[in-house]
Design goal:
four-stranded antiparallel sheet; 32% strand; alpha+beta; elongated; 258 residues; single chain; 14% helix
């Protein structure tokens, strides 16, 4: 079978028309006739119009991309979590009809501020100054009252005082006796607790829990936040820090962990 090959050429007299010109015949072994060659589809737009359209589309895409980047940059940043508010160390406690209160005096803050201890022995009476003597109280007083006229007070480190003196009274502040000094009480109002029998528990500056017995001459470490975090209670509440210590009614020491 013979097939005729044709060449497509533009018609010079009619720009949008095409002519098929016969070419040399070639032999083909295929039984199917050769598919006709069609002229390219015309868009109907002049070349200058098509080029301008492409440039406009590219410019629009670039403008959309720039606008998207601008919107993402203008999004407000996530707010920072609020900082914890320091707990005031101006505290008071009442035990068996006797009230104790510690307040700052001298200056609003700084090295000239010091703390004083007052007691009220009975309702309707007068507040009396009962601050322990012989030690600077610029770092604040931490109170632990086992009951009645007995009170234990710790003085926080400050200025040149690098440890926490601990003292106790059994007659409502009439006289004070020194106890083993703590390495340094934490900056919270419940950093010290005491039992009627003289047992003490303290929360230190580095979150270490320390205890001292009535006849002990020094404090010993009871536990740490890392150790407490591995306990069932610590895992349940996702322990992140300690803020207080206390004794249970059976005189078992208990750090306030959660």
């Amino acid at each position: 079978m013979r097939a005729t090959r044709a060449t497509i050429a533009p018609n010079s007299s009619r720009p949008n028309c095409w002519l098929a010109q016969p070419d040399t015949a070639i032999a083909s072994s295929s039984s199917t006739a050769a598919a006709p060659v069609l002229p390219p589809r015309s868009t109907g737009l002049p070349p200058r119009v098509r080029a301008a359209t492409r440039r406009a589309a590219a410019g629009l895409a670039l403008a959309i991309a720039v606008a998207g980047c601008g919107n993402s940059a203008e999004r407000p940043a996530a707010p920072h979590p609020p900082k914890p508010v320091p707990v005031s160390l101006a505290t008071s406690l009442t035990s068996a009809g006797t009230a104790w209160a510690t307040i700052p005096m001298g200056a609003p803050s700084g090295p000239n501020q010091f703390w004083q201890l007052f007691t009220l022995a009975s309702p309707g009476g007068r507040w009396l100054l009962k601050t322990p003597g012989g030690v600077a109280t610029n770092g604040a007083l931490v109170l632990a009252g086992p009951g009645q006229q007995t009170l234990t007070a710790g003085i926080r480190p400050s200025l040149d005082l690098g440890f926490s003196p601990v003292t106790t009274t059994r007659d409502g502040g009439g006289s004070w006796s020194s106890l083993p000094p703590d390495p340094g009480l934490a900056d919270v109002p419940d950093a010290l607790a005491a039992t009627v029998g003289g047992g003490l528990i303290a929360l230190g500056l580095h979150q270490t829990i320390q205890v001292a017995g009535p006849q002990q001459a020094a404090w010993t470490t009871l536990t740490t936040p890392k150790a407490l975090a591995t306990t069932p209670a610590g895992r349940r509440c996702a322990l992140s820090g300690l803020t207080a210590v206390a004794y249970t009614p059976t005189c078992s020491p208990r750090p306030a962990a959660c």
